[in-house]
Each structure stands twice: as structure tokens, then as C-alpha cells.
């Protein structure tokens, strides 16, 4: 059992902060603005992205993101039951649902750029910064569910 990688031998709640952070594959999908249907809870992704998203799908203001963006995603192990809105490819969601990491995940492949090469990230999308579009227009930018 000791030779198993940490995500196969630990629950999300048992992971260290560095293990937890390393689960992020860098896809950038959490930084897409999402809309939730009030009637059935369906979450719709848009191609509207947080203004702090960098071209490499990282946050240009990562350390201060929660102060700068009031609804910025802050994934915590104690919120695992609420991960349903995360994209189906997200490591946090996959592990919370008892699944394994995909072959393209940086922890599996060893290549942090593979996620972009296989078009899992938002890097290939035409994105609109959220500060350049009124929120009432976001529904016009819904993309296929992730």
C-alpha cells in the first residue's frame, strides 16, 4: 500500500495542503463564469472568464484572489459534497466521486502542458474577460457543459 500514489491512499480530507494544491490540473475551467438554473440546479458554463485569468490558464492574482473577487472558487476538503458543479474532468470532483485521475493529468503524465495539448483546458477557447461584459449578458455565452 505504501507504493500507491497519495491520491489513491488518502481521502481528500487526509491530504496535506501541498498534495491538495497539486491536484489542480491547471485547466482553468473553475475560472469560467457559471450560471445555475434556479429550478433544477443545472450548472451552465460560459466562455466568460475571470479577468485575472492568464494566458497559461493560471490566476495572475492567486494569493489575493479571494479579496479581489467575492465569488472566487475556494475548494476545501470539507466542501467535497458540493463539488457537483466542477467540470467532469476535475481531479477534485473525480476523486470525490471515487474515480481515478485521467492519463493526461500532470500528476499521472508528469507533463503539465499535456492538458493543453489534449484540449482539456480552456487555453484553446475564445474567452471574454468578465469585467468587459455585463453579467446580464453572460447567458448569451453559455457553452457545452463541462
Describe this structure in words.
The chain is α+β, with helices and mostly antiparallel strands and about 150 residues long. It has one domain. The protein is built from six helices and three strands; from the N terminus they run H-H-E-E-H-H-H-H-E. About 20% of the residues are buried.
Task: Give a summary of the structure in a few sentences.
The protein is of the alpha+beta class and 146 residues long. Helix content is 19%, strand content 10%.
Number of strands: 3
Residues in helix, %:
10-25%
Order of helices and strands: HHEEHHHHE
The backbone outline, from C-alpha atoms, is: globular
Please report the distance between the alpha carbons of the first and last residues. 33 Å
Q: Average the pLDDT over all residues and give the rounded result.
A: 90
Order of the strands making up the biggest sheet: 1-2-3
Rg over CA atoms, rounded to whole Å, is: 16 Å
Strand content: 5-15%
Keyphrases for this structure?
single chain; 146 residues; alpha+beta; 6 helices; 19% helix; 10% strand; globular
Q: How is the secondary structure organized here?
A:
Layout: H1 6-9, H2 17-22, E1 32-36, E2 43-49, H3 65-68, H4 91-96, H5 106-109, H6 114-117, E3 128-129
Parallel strand pairs: 2-3
Antiparallel strand pairs: 1-2
